[in-house]
Automatic annotation (TrEMBL):
Domain annotation RPAP1/MINIYO-like TPR repeats: ranges: 240-466
Protein name as it appears in the record: RPAP1/MINIYO-like TPR repeats domain-containing protein
GO biological process: transcription by RNA polymerase II
Signal peptide start and end residues: none
Origin superkingdom: Eukaryota
UniProt xrefs under PANTHER family: RNA POLYMERASE II-ASSOCIATED PROTEIN 1 (PTHR21483)
């Protein structure tokens, strides 16, 4: 059984949906009716399901599903009722796939595609389709049959990839060589993960029962055929973070809006662990399903791990999983797309969240390296100086315990040191923290290198600048020259560039380059001349 030639051109949910459904040659009405008929037949006689495998294997259907798996439709209220029809067709095709994947090897080859379609369909479903969402959660989304990577060498491939990455970068982040093992454990825990999410969606049960009666045509129990009010999709686009965000809303925020760290509810650790396991699976094997969640939103949601309580992030399973997710979120391509200037959905700004994290770190971190890496991420040079000013200003005390080493940080140090800093207030804070000893290479290795790099570039800069800036340059350089701490003086004057494998994380010149030596000499001579004139 194969679709007719009219199916060779399929509309995609991104656009053209009105034309796709209303054109006389549209295959959707026929296929929807056919899908419903086949579903009814297979409910009566499950042994007949293999007879209908050709429908899913046909190139037009496969191509359509592949297009849907990559689509990002925009909800328009005026044509939402049309979307329901396409959602229903996709649901019927997925129902057929669910019956065939375990018994038909050719269909099983496309299991990952069907799983991807199910994942992208979930946040599209509108009020009145709760039963379809529940069915997808119960059958496909958390099924090991549809996550074929979990039993076909996927975790091993991840481990090999990380070993190759380690050879190239020589990172020693605690998460290396662990993601594969974490994925294996997550695949074993899929039934428990499903139970976790269904529990957090239990408040939708009345809507599920009502929509199921309407979907199955149980007229005696259907009170109205009017569609529910359309306020948006049933599930938020970031539903995989739901257990974590729900826990934060319960324990992390007080009525006054401040942080209120309380004892965790019973089962909270297990719930967070299952949530992180699921996020790890999606990040590694279903990255497309999370593309609707901006990177800044992912970072904000995962930050709840540190804000939910005073010790949740110290629990071993949470530590391992969060390290793994941090490594994935700080890959080169992810760092390039992470824009912290865009407010995460649900927050006024990322800076507000960051200030809460700083307060929590000072209160309960015990110098935890994972928490430290999380706080260092927004301090990259490309981001606003506001967060750096907060660290080196009102939260400067945390520098005494931010002991993350350059090797532990999976972000290239050059992202923090280049280009040269141009915020004069921040440069003054860098300088103050260095000369007062607050920022020391043993206590805070990463930011010590960052501060050295920017102060060094500032004092020896030859660029034309305003009088205030030039005066600050000269003043800093003179003070450095007269420092009694010879080690710090040497570091500030002879700093060359960051170097991951050196003792302090940077290289130094054997002696001042001629241009820099000349500048230092001129500034000192100018000072002496000024002193002589005053005398």
């Amino acid at each position: 059984m194969k679709p007719s030639p009219a199916c060779l051109v399929w509309p995609v949910m991104d656009g053209g949906i009105i034309q796709g459904w209303l054109l006389p040659c549209s295959p959707f009405p026929l296929l929807t009716g056919l899908g419903f008929l086949l579903d009814t037949i297979m409910d009566i006689h499950k042994g007949l399901c293999c007879k209908f495998a050709d429908l899913l294997l046909s190139e037009p259907v496969t191509g359509y599903l592949r297009s849907c798996s990559q689509a990002t439709p925009t909800l328009v209220l005026g044509r939402a009722w049309l979307l329901r029809h396409e959602h229903y067709l996709l649901y019927l095709l997925l129902r057929l796939a669910h019956r065939l994947v375990p018994v038909e090897p050719q269909i099983a080859k496309h299991a990952s595609l069907y799983h991807q379609v199910a994942l992208v369909l979930l946040p599209w479903l509108l009020p009145g389709s709760e039963s379809m969402a529940h069915e997808l959660f119960s059958t496909i989304v958390f099924s090991k049959d549809f996550i074929s990577e979990g039993h076909s060498g996927g975790p091993e491939a991840v481990e090999l990839g990380e070993l190759k990455l380690q050879e190239q970068t020589e990172h020693t982040s605690p998460s290396l060589q662990t993601v594969g093992a974490l994925l294996r454990d997550a695949c074993v825990q899929l039934p428990s993960i499903r139970g976790c999410f269904l529990t957090h969606l239990a408040h939708l049960e009345p809507s599920v029962l009502t929509s199921r009666d309407a979907l199955l045509g149980r007229s005696p129990w259907v009170k109205s055929h009017l569609l529910p009010e359309l306020t948006g999709p049933i599930l938020p686009s970031d539903w995989p973070f739901l257990p974590l965000v729900s826990l934060y809303e319960q324990t992390g925020v007080s009525g006054s809006g401040g942080l209120e760290v309380e004892a965790l509810p019973q089962g909270a650790l297990q719930s967070v662990t299952h949530c992180l396991q699921w996020l790890l699976v999606l990040e590694v094997w279903r990255e497309e399903a999370l593309k609707v969640v901006p990177p800044v939103a992912k970072l904000a949601r995962l930050s709840c791990v540190f804000l939910c309580s005073s010790d949740l992030f110290l629990e071993r399973p949470v530590q391992k999983l969060t390290w793994g997710l941090f490594r994935l979120l700080t890959r080169q391509s992810r760092l390039d797309s992470l824009d912290l200037n865009v407010p995460p959905p649900g927050l006024a700004s990322f800076q507000d969240l960051y200030l809460a994290l700083l307060t929590q770190y000072e209160a309960v971190s015990f110098g935890d390296r994972l928490f430290g890496c999380w706080l260092l991420l927004p301090l990259q040079r490309r981001y606003s100086a506001t967060m750096k000013l907060a660290v080196f200003g009102e939260h400067v005390g945390m520098l005494r315990s931010l002991g993350v080493t350059i090797e532990q940080l999976s972000i290239p140090i050059e992202r923090f040191t280049s280009p040269a800093e141009d915020s004069l207030p921040l440069l003054r804070l860098y300088f103050r923290s260095l000369v007062t000893g607050t920022l020391a290479p043993r206590r805070c290795p990463v930011l010590y290198v960052v501060a050295l790099s920017h102060v060094n570039a500032f004092i020896f800069s030859q660029d034309a600048a305003a009088q205030e800036v030039e005066t600050a340059r000269r003043s800093m350089l003179r003070k450095i020259y007269y420092l009694t701490d010879e080690v710090l003086k040497t570091h500030l004057l002879l700093f060359r560039l960051p170097q991951r494998h050196s003792e302090f994380g940077f290289d130094v010149y054997d002696q001042l380059p001629p241009i820099r030596a000349k500048r230092l000499e001129n500034i000192l001579q100018t000072q002496e001349s000024s002193s002589d004139q005053r005398d």
